[in-house]
Specification:
The chain has 454 residues and is an alpha/beta fold. 20% of the residues lie in helices and 24% in strands. It contains ten helices and 19 strands. The chain has a ten-stranded mixed beta sheet with strand order 2-1-4-3-5-6-7-8-10-9, sandwiched between helices.
Length: 454
């Protein structure tokens, strides 16, 4: 596990002035367009809020919405759903670099009114000051939502998307509307100052008809506890693959895990493959192949990151605060498929057996290892791959004898059967190689896989 980054934040912020802000960009507003504000790095500023509408015809041109007349005279379409994006703390007082990508991904995935809440002034410099502005910002957004409702927009069509501190702002807005807004998505809701807060002060399942959260930095800037109907703990909710693990990486070391929730969400909206997750007691149990379906509590409908109703769960009344788990790749498009891999022995052994399993597709390979404990016959685990199981062409198996395995016993073959299935799965759907396999020493065994596409 990476060392905690929160204690070094104050010191590191002093160094940030020499780094280019990897999470921000400056784009000059063209004529007729309004851009995000900027704020002083040293003294911060009082809360000043802008509501910017981004039409599908020009998703990089923000239309400033000041009063109800401005809404009526804008390209706002009351027949479409409305998605309101709320950013979080801005250490350097600049526009979030991810905002344009998220807007474009939302517009690509669904026709909707996309509104970004710009509160860079008020979210900058000192984190405690930004926290103090959360309540005031929640009240301003609530007033804005009331103006939207006055145009005939139904409450259920409002979807708030809050990033970090913005997730708790979204929770407050939903609380002000008695949980009757349609949906809240929290992208790694902030942890500091909120982990021990009451439900009235932070995001919780009662804040909307459907509340979901994506956790990616639960050991530092993100919140550890579940806060929605469904809480996605991606890669266990911390230490994301591909993020730097050393403070010498500067700003990226601090914010990479935290901001990865935004990039996962954008990837899910762009849809190269489903980001499906599975309820489980822990991430370790999930990786060990202990949680293979969504029967409990979702009645076989598995939650999926994106814009599906109720996250793809086919239940009218959702259970609250269900932890679900999934793994990802280290780089875009991030999404992977999860397959159960099993090797069952014909005979019990007196020592642990380790087997390395590799899936090969036309241009990629994917590897994992499983252990068959002594006095048992079955070893299993999950193997993640970027193409569907039916596109995997071959599987290779290699036994790795334990250090205590004697030279004599090392010559004895490991005989058994290999099976696999893509999640979600039940035992009746397992694909098994017809041949009984015999693994000897460090000899690689390769077989063709012919899993039929669904």
């Amino acid at each position: 596990m990476a060392p905690s980054r929160w204690p070094v934040l104050t010191f590191t912020l002093q160094l940030l002035f020499i780094f280019a802000d990897a999470e921000s960009e400056t784009i000059k507003a063209s004529e007729g367009c309004t851009d995000f504000q900027s704020a002083s790095l040293l003294r911060g500023s009082n809360l000043k809020v802008q509501f910017l509408l981004f039409p599908s015809s020009n998703p990089r041109c923000g239309q400033l919405l000041l009063v109800s007349e401005a809404i009526q005279n804008s390209s706002f379409n009351t027949s479409l759903g409305t998605k309101i994006i709320i950013h979080g703390f801005r250490a350097l007082g600049t526009k979030p670099s991810w905002i344009n990508g998220l807007i474009e991904a939302l517009l690509q995935a669904n026709q909707a009114n996309i509104i970004a809440v710009d509160w860079v002034q008020g979210a900058t410099a000192a984190y405690p000051t930004a926290v103090e502005n959360v309540m005031k910002l929640g009240l301003e957004i609530s007033t804005f939502v009331r103006r939207l409702l006055a145009t005939g927009v139904p409450e259920t069509s409002i979807h708030l998307i809050g990033v970090s501190l913005g997730a708790h702002v979204a929770g407050l807005v939903g609380h002000f509307y008695d949980g009757m807004l349609g949906r809240i998505t929290g992208l790694d809701p902030a942890g500091p100052k909120f982990t021990r807060a009451s439900q009235e002060e932070r995001l919780d399942p009662g804040d909307a008809l459907f509340v979901e959260a994506i956790h990616t930095d639960a050991d530092n800037f993100g919140i550890r506890i579940p806060v929605g109907h469904i809480d996605y703990y991606v890669n266990g909710g911390k230490d994301q693959p591909g993020c730097p693990r050393f403070i010498s990486s500067g700003y990226r070391y601090l914010i990479c895990d935290h901001m990865r929730a935004v990039h996962f969400y954008i990837s899910a909206l762009e849809g190269p493959c489903p980001m499906m997750a599975f309820p489980c007691s822990s991430y370790q149990n999930f990786l060990a192949g202990g949680c293979l379906d969504c029967f409990n509590p979702f009645l076989l409908s598995c939650p999926t990151i994106g814009l599906l109703d109720n996250g793809g769960v086919d239940m009218k009344k959702l259970p609250m605060e269900v932890k679900v788990y999934l793994a990802t790749a280290a780089s875009p498009p991030y999404c992977v498929y999860h397959s159960l891999v099993e090797f069952s022995l014909q005979e019990i052994t007196t020592l642990d057996i380790n087997i390395e399993i590799t899936f090969l597709s036309s241009n990629s390979s994917f590897r994992t290892s499983i252990t068959i404990p002594k006095q048992q016959t079955l070893g299993k685990g999950l193997l993640m791959h970027s193409v569907p199981l039916c596109q995997i062409e071959r599987v290779t198996l290699l036994s790795r004898p334990s250090k205590t395995w004697s030279r004599k016993k090392n010559g004895n073959p490991i005989v058994g059967q290999f099976c696999t299935a893509q999640l979600p799965v039940d035992k009746g759907e397992m694909f098994c190689l017809s041949q009984t396999l015999s693994l000897t020493g460090n000899t690689l065994l390769s077989h063709r896989l012919t899993v039929t596409c669904a």
